[in-house]
Amino acid sequence: MPIKHSPLDTARFDVASARADDVTLGELPEIRRFCEQEQIQFIIARCDTSELDTVQALEADGFRLMDTMVHHVYDIGRNGLPVLEPPHPIRAYQPADRDAVLAIAKAAFEGYMGHYHADPHIEPSVADEIYADWARRETETSQVFVADQAGEVVGFITARMNNPTEGQLVLSGVSKKARGGGIYREFLKHGLHWLGEQGAERVLFVTQITNTPVQRVWGRLGCVLQRSEYTLHKWFDR
Predict the structure, then answer these.
(1) Tell me, what DSSP letter sits at residue 68?
(2) What structural domains does the chain harbor?
(3) Largest CB tally within 10 Å, which of 48, 105, 134, 221?
(4) For the segment 192-226, what is each residue's pLDDT rounded down to a tens digit?
(5) pTM, rounded to two decimals
């Protein structure tokens, strides 16, 4: 089934919410039926950028384009693991790091033009908090590493295994005062090593198409573009 309830968005916006991923044209009737039967008021839909007929049909049905995501992949089997060059400031996350990680996430993504920030129906402050909440959930469900400079946490990255052979580097942030020093690249290398130790043969990276600085870092590391997808929103009462 391409559509399901979204408890997180329901809690965030206090309206019945749903998500539909990898939408194709033939699935639109099913999505419409689900929304009507479940009295959905807000839905997030994603579809591959090659699905132009689907995008146009969604727009005709009241959906609005919010962002474009690009998916890159690092092939460990082909590229091997990048060389770690100690000393580096990366260490495993500890519970005492939680407040610093959440503060960095909130500051790093303030005003970031993701699909929540792009939606005029969502207050910017609410969209900012969504990233802090995302980081909070990542500290509870994923492997987290932090950058520690003289006892101060100045960045973080989260990693997880999607299946026995595929890993993903999910969310990261570096404090403003520590940017430009190569911490993000060290995060990527460290994360790739950890995922490789877990059995990953390939590692996924996802970001906004407009987030070119991180894509340049990915390219220099050996990542290649895999696919892209659109994110669309529809509010049924606005």
Answers:
(1) E
(2) 3-62 (no CATH), 73-228 (3.40.630.30)
(3) 105
(4) 999 999 999 999 999 999 999 999 999 999 999 99
(5) 0.91
